[in-house]
Amino acid sequence: MFAITAARIDKTNPLSGLEAGERPDPAPPEGWTTVTVKAAALNHHDLWSLRGVGLSPDRLPMVLGCDAAGVDEDGNEVVVHAVIGDPDAGGGDETRDPRRSLLSEVHPGTLAEKVAVPRRNLVPKPPELSFEEAACLPTAWLTAYRMLFTRAALGPGSTVLVQGAGGGVASALIRLASATGHRVYATSRDAAKRDRALRLGAYAALPTGERLPEKVDAVFESVGEATWAHSVRSLRPGGSIIVCGATSGEAPPAELTRTFFLQLSVIGSTMGTRDELRRLTEFCARTGVRPEIDRVLPLERAAEGFAAMEQGELFGKVVFRVGS
Ligand SMILES: NC(=O)c1ccc[n+]([C@@H]2O[C@H](COP(=O)([O-])OP(=O)(O)OC[C@H]3O[C@@H](n4cnc5c(N)ncnc54)[C@H](OP(=O)(O)O)[C@@H]3O)[C@@H](O)[C@H]2O)c1
């Protein structure tokens, strides 16, 4: 089958390890099944893998990709849940299984014509969603869904800040939080991306680091070092930061004094459960909320999407069309 792989790890020039070519078809073990991929989406995770974060050299070459929508062995349209874990080992939540992994970390990923996954990792694709839209949901959108609805536990009509508006996770947060009635501030380094954040439903969009006109109940962080101090300073007393990533670095000042004095909470969040993914797909089908897609490319041109993500050019998701 045709696939996009990490062939080498390079921390400074990650795209030099990217290869496109033929790989063996998956050989699913007992309890697993093979999905014929129709669309797959790119995540920053794929760039981290090429830098050797979460992917060790002894596992190379590795098929990249966490997100896919396609057709299962019985002809059903499905969305693939990327978390390979045992809910029983995580107290009923596979994201808390200490031995969990994401597709492309231990098992071959989704940037391929076929991907093998445990049978329980298939979620029905609602007919209202295209394969391209459904392929955006399993990582960035699921992470945003869990941050907003499971981890933040916000009351209706809250005021929130989303840092780095252009990102896959961030654009999902803007869309989901505004669609559910929160007042959403967003930041971005780029004026055109701030305009697009407004069109997604943000109440206001500001340059990265600019002071907000009011304090917020919660900040959604995936940027890390470049925005952390601003996130802490933007919270009202008792507010929360929900953090899922640190794209710009993970060593910001901790801001301990402000954290204890204002009784702030810092809440980590990672991916989501299969059940959360199923509810997210149904939410999108019922509400008309759809992922913001920056561009759709044939899988053969995956390197263009990786380069645009590395350059920070994107607003929303890059989707790869697979097969005819
Ligand atoms: N824990 C989990 O389960 C989980 C799941 C998904 C993602 N993540 C992590 O979350 C992060 C975002 O993922 P993604 O797929 O959404 O990435 P992405 O689409 O590449 O978005 C990254 C965004 O971060 C902002 N950014 C990057 N560098 C910045 C800087 N120096 N200053 C200010 N803003 C900066 C950019 O916003 P602007 O260009 O608009 O300024 C950019 O759009 C990644 O680190 C990823 O690994 C974690």
Automatic annotation (TrEMBL):
Which SMART domains does the entry mention?
PKS_ER
Tell me the superkingdom of the source: Bacteria
Coiled-coil ranges from the UniProt annotation: none
Gene Ontology molecular function: oxidoreductase activity
Domain (Enoyl reductase (ER)) spans 13-320
UniProt xrefs under Pfam families: ADH_N, ADH_zinc_N
The record's listing under PANTHER family reads:
DEHYDROGENASE, PUTATIVE (AFU_ORTHOLOGUE AFUA_2G13270)-RELATED, PTHR45033
Would you tell me the protein name for this molecule?
A: NADPH:quinone reductase-like Zn-dependent oxidoreductase
